[in-house]
Write a structure and sequence with these properties.
heterodimer; A: alpha+beta; Alpha-Beta Plaits; 4-stranded antiparallel beta sheet; about 70% helix; B: alpha+beta; Multidrug efflux transporter AcrB transmembrane fold; 6-stranded antiparallel beta sheet; 13 helices; 22 strands; about 25% strand; elongated
């Protein structure tokens, strides 16, 4: 398809294209809402964000299946994860999270399985606890940080463009970039960790650059015809997004830790959402804006 | 291609900073063992061995020989030192000085392997326990810093050197103790603490309002630095402040001191034969001489004094004031004003920490390779993709250099932050490359304005990232501050140093053709 045909297609269909991000946003909002209706929380949280006991075993060659089945019998609210990268057969250890129980109860149960600091060194076996109040406080503190961060990001965008409509277009596309990975975490039943929330913070900070590039190109590159401004910035923007995407996906596959994997996953989903939100939402919106305002 | 063309000041600044970063990090093996800790009142302490924790890791004192035996590894040290029996004398030779040691009591030296670089390992890498404490009853905003300070003093009093205590907001205190296990830490922090003043092993008064009715604080007429003197190691200053004792405590003082003799010091001052000893949780914190004029007196007004030392008078005064504040706080509250509860306790395995950091670095490296590949596919020129990878990696090196310079702890969160900021660097380099490729066909005047426009996008993106990270520093979540600091430092170094240099580089490179 040559450029002229593409332009004609875009001119005719740009409003319809916006349906895709809108549907994606509806999906992204409904998933956690449905989850809330059924389980009482929008997303599963790790014990560091809600309180509980966390145990790590950093030793290869233990009978992990036996440990897993015995612990599952004793504790109800338990998540056991093998520390293992998706491409490796080696289990580095176990990450165990138990929601409602005391440190002593868990330590006793593990003692019966011969997991204690008499057999294993303090490097190989650790057991920690988080009070539910601290977990809650930490969680709400991080959510507060996310909200303030979003507001500051919006302010920075407004100051940069000094124009209401284009700024709002940039900011609203960030909403989808956050909502979609959140929905995926909720859908895949992954326990959200503090590291995951940090990944959302990264999304707020970093997902706007393609939008800024697009806005700047459409509004300021006076020497180019309109559609070329769009395609030129798209070429650069997509290179940026795909480089990061192709960097993050293999990074996900080489890491075994829950936190790192989760961070890479959130960033990958955010990048996918960013392609949709930037070029199927922000771009048509700006297109209508420059046509209506007769911006040369 | 002439290299000379590339000697633009932006590129030179980058090269200079890369070089400086290597110097700041200064990687390399060292021979000897590092002095980690010296116990109070030990043979090593008497010999004058001290540790200065403010020095950069690579400037710390290393033991290189004992008498004529060379010390290269930890094994050397242990095998040599175990040969010396009680009451023997020997010389400890360090890379800075020589100390004659008389082993009339415990040696009191703790040593470890010398650091490989100036990068400071955080708890994730060293291993230890992180515990977050909260007061059982609500503590006022004014009292909270006191609570943090007393806790720090107490933990230091237990002989734990590698401890960090910091407030997280006005409710939580984060304590990190390297090398300690969860049970040890639990025992330590759950005690409320007690203060006792003893003379001749008899308790005269204890901390708190019952015995101590008044403590002079923040009042220059009855508290302050009284006198400073130059010593062989720098300067020493003396602080003094007055306290008032209750009738009961004053009577006790009279009865205890009446039994003591009077000694005359070498300077001709008359002191009682037993000093006043201040104990915190049964650990001796301070020893004060008692003037002979107080013998048998029901002293209600007591002047407490103590020293502060430093490399110069300014440091000595600063330390003396810090010591005075600590002592005043302990005397006023007697102990921790409230009981502390554990809100969160996490033993951190250095094994796990190290493997996590390795994983993060591997992931970062794999990501960089993939970036190089995608860039090559897009531009089809090694000439462009290789410099991009080199400029990106230079950011990584400079951030590490910066952290080595300021002595910031490297933790998992910090390393992930660094990788994230280098990641954005690549995005900026792509913007610059695209502008440069388009610009190579037009005149150089237009070129300048194009790059300027590209930098508008880069700067807006930069301010957005900084704005997004700031709340993490402000709200004092404490645990994740390192991530925000690493990201902000990283993008700042990138946006102001590496990326402008790359812009110039690519301009010169493409104009060559």
């Amino acid at each position: 398809m040559d450029l002229a045909k593409l332009e004609a297609f875009f001119e005719k269909n740009h409003k319809k294209l916006m349906l895709i991000p809108i549907l994606l946003l509806i999906f992204s909002i409904s998933v956690p809402v449905i989850k809330y209706a059924t389980t009482g929380e929008f997303v599963k949280r790790s014990v560091e964000l809600k309180g509980g006991i966390s145990v790590t075993l950093n030793k290869q060659g233990l009978d992990y299946n036996f440990i897993e089945s015995s612990l599952k019998e004793t504790f109800k609210d338990i998540t056991i994860r093998k520390a293992q990268s998706p491409i490796s057969n080696n289990i580095e250890g176990l990450e165990i999270q138990i929601g409602s129980s005391s440190l002593e109860e868990v330590a006793n149960a593990l003692d019966k399985l011969n997991i204690n600091n008499k057999v294993l060194s303090k490097e190989e076996f650790t057991i920690g606890s988080t009070s539910s109040k601290f977990g809650q406080d930490f969680y709400s503190n991080l959510i507060k940080i996310l909200i303030i961060s979003f507001i500051l990001m919006s302010l920075a965008v407004f100051i940069a463009f000094r124009s209401f409509f284009p700024s709002m277009a940039v900011i609203s596309s960030v909403v989808l970039d956050i909502a979609f990975p959140f929905a995926m975490i909720s859908l895949l039943n992954i326990s959200l960790t503090a590291g995951g929330i940090i990944a959302f913070l990264l999304v707020i900070g970093y997902s706007v650059d393609t939008d800024i590039l697009l806005t700047n190109s459409l509004l300021n590159k006076k020497h180019l015809p309109h559609f070329e401004r769009l395609t030129a910035s798209m070429k650069t923007g997509l290179t940026m997004t795909f480089t990061t995407l192709f960097a993050v996906i293999p990074a996900y596959f080489v890491s075994s830790s829950e936190v790192l994997q989760q961070m890479f996953l959130i960033i990958a989903f955010a990048l996918i959402a960013d392609i949709v939100s930037t070029y199927l939402f922000n771009a048509p919106l700006l297109w209508m804006y420059i046509k209506r305002k007769n911006i040369s | 291609m002439k290299l000379k063309k590339f000697l633009h000041y932006r590129i030179l600044i980058l090269l200079f900073l890369i070089l400086l970063s290597v110097v700041w990090i200064s990687p390399g093996k060292q021979e000897g063992v590092m002095i980690k800790d010296v116990s109070l009142n030990s043979s090593a302490y008497d010999a004058g061995i001290t540790i200065n924790t403010e020095l950069k890791p690579k400037q710390r004192e290393l033991i290189t020989a004992i008498d004529s035996q060379k010390i290269i590894t930890l094994e050397d040290y242990y095998s040599v030192i175990s040969k010396y029996k009680e009451n023997s004398t020997f010389r400890i030779i360090t890379n800075k000085k020589e100390y004659p040691v008389y082993l009339n009591k415990e040696l009191g030296l703790k040593v470890e392997e010398p650091p490989y670089s100036n990068l400071v390992e955080g708890l994730d890498l060293k291993g230890g326990t992180r515990v977050i404490l909260t007061a059982e009853e609500p503590v006022g905003k004014e009292q909270f810093p006191d609570l943090v300070r007393i806790l720090e003093k107490r933990l230091n009093g237990f002989g734990i050197k590698d401890v960090s205590v910091r407030a997280s907001g006005n409710e939580y205190i984060i304590v990190e103790i390297a090398g300690a296990s969860e049970t040890e830490v639990k025992k330590l922090v759950e005690q409320q603490g007690k203060f006792e003043a003893k003379i001749n092993n008899e308790t005269v008064f204890i901390g708190g309002k019952e015995d101590i009715v008044f403590v002079c604080k923040d009042d220059g007429t009855c508290a302050g630095i009284r006198d400073c003197q130059d010593t062989t190691q720098g300067s020493q200053c003396t602080f003094e402040f007055r306290i008032g004792l209750s009738d009961k405590a004053a009577k006790k003082h009279a009865s205890v001191t009446s039994k003591l003799d009077v000694n005359i010091s070498s300077y001709g001052q008359e002191y009682l034969s037993s000093p006043l000893e201040l104990y915190l949780d049964d650990n001796l914190m301070d020893t004060l001489q008692i003037s002979s004029s107080l013998k048998g007196m029901e002293a209600k007004d007591i002047v407490i004094s103590g020293p502060g030392t430093g490399a110069n008078e300014k440091d000595a005064i600063k330390n003396a004031i810090a010591n005075m504040n600590n002592l005043q706080t302990i005397l006023i509250t007697g102990s921790l004003p409230v009981k502390l509860n554990i809100a969160k306790i996490d033993p951190i395995s250095s094994l796990r920490g190290e493997s996590l950091v390795k994983e993060a670095l591997t992931a970062g490296f794999v990501a960089l390779l993939m970036v190089a590949l995608v860039i090559f596919i897009r531009y089809r020129k090694l000439k462009i993709s290789i410099p991009m990878v080199i400029f990106s990696s230079s950011e990584f090196l400079m951030i590490l250099g910066f952290f080595a310079l300021i002595g910031y702890n490297l933790d998992l969160a910090t390393i992930v932050g660094i990788i994230a900021s280098v990641g954005t660097g690549v995005d900026d380099l792509i913007i610059l490359t695209d502008e440069a490729l388009k610009g190579s066909q037009i005149s150089s005047l237009d070129w300048k304005s194009k790059i300027k426009k590209a930098f508008f996008v880069i700067m807006v993106a930069y301010f957005v990232v900084v704005a997004a990270m700031l709340p993490l520093i402000w709200t004092g979540a404490g645990l994740l501050t390192g991530f925000a600091i690493a990201t902000i430092a990283g993008v700042t170094i990138g946006v102001f140093i590496a990326r402008p240099a790359y812009a110039k580089f690519i301009e010169i490179l493409l104009h060559e053709e």
